[in-house]
Amino acid sequence: MSDLFEWPVRVYYEDTDVGGVVYYANYLRFMERARTEWLRQLGFEQDELIRDDGVLFAVAAAEVRYRAPARFNDLLHVTAAVTEQRRSRIIFEQKVYRPADGAHLTDGIITVACLDAERFRPRPLPDSMQRILFA
User: Fold this and answer.
1) What is the pLDDT of residues 61-118, one digit of tens each?
2) Burial bucket for residue 124 (CB in 10 Å: 0-12, 13-18, 19+)
3) Are 28 and 94 in contact (CB under 8 A)?
4) Whole-prediction pTM value?
5) Hey, CA dihedral for 34, 40, 42, 46, is it positive or negative?
6) 3-class secondary structure, 121
7) Looking at residue 52, what DSSP letter applies?
8) Is 89 helix (H, G, I), strand (E, B) or coil?
9) Nearest of 120, 121, 112 to residue 44 by alpha carbon
10) Which of 23, 28, 48, 99 has its CA 20 to 30 A from that of 118?
11) Which of 3, 17, 47, 53 is labelled catalytic?
């Protein structure tokens, strides 16, 4: 549904376990960074959305498949593509790969809900976002 967005991520020592392999939960952090940068390139800052529109985003569901390990100091690329969008949620397909050898490391299907920042209840995406996403 949307163009593929891609963001580089370097693996730091803090991202790894004692064996120098990326700890599994950190792939979710990498995916979060890519979605944040995707939103930023569309012209939206999350702190401004909270302040000006009274909305925030929360992961409602995450399905992750691990294919191969990343290691300390690897340069990774994380992709994000919108596969479904509704009034109050966006579903992303995300991938993590290592460009140096083309290794496909991780896949994720991430559902993000738009919430009222005060009540933490679902609410429609701001009109400014709907105009871009539903165009």
Assistant:
1) 999 999 999 999 999 999 999 999 999 999 999 999 999 999 999 999 999 999 999 9
2) middle
3) no
4) 0.94
5) positive
6) coil
7) I
8) strand
9) 112
10) 28
11) 17
Report the distance separating Cα 61 and Cα 107, nearest Å: 14
Please count the structural domains in the chain.
1
Residues 11 and 15: their CA atoms lie apart, in Å, by 6
Whichever domain contains 52, its CATH number is 3.10.129.10
Strand locations in the chain (E): 5-10, 55-66, 75-85, 89-98, 103-116
CA dist 57 and 90 (Å) reads: 10
Would you give the distance in Å from CA 64 to the centre of its chain? 12
Structural domain of 114: 5-133
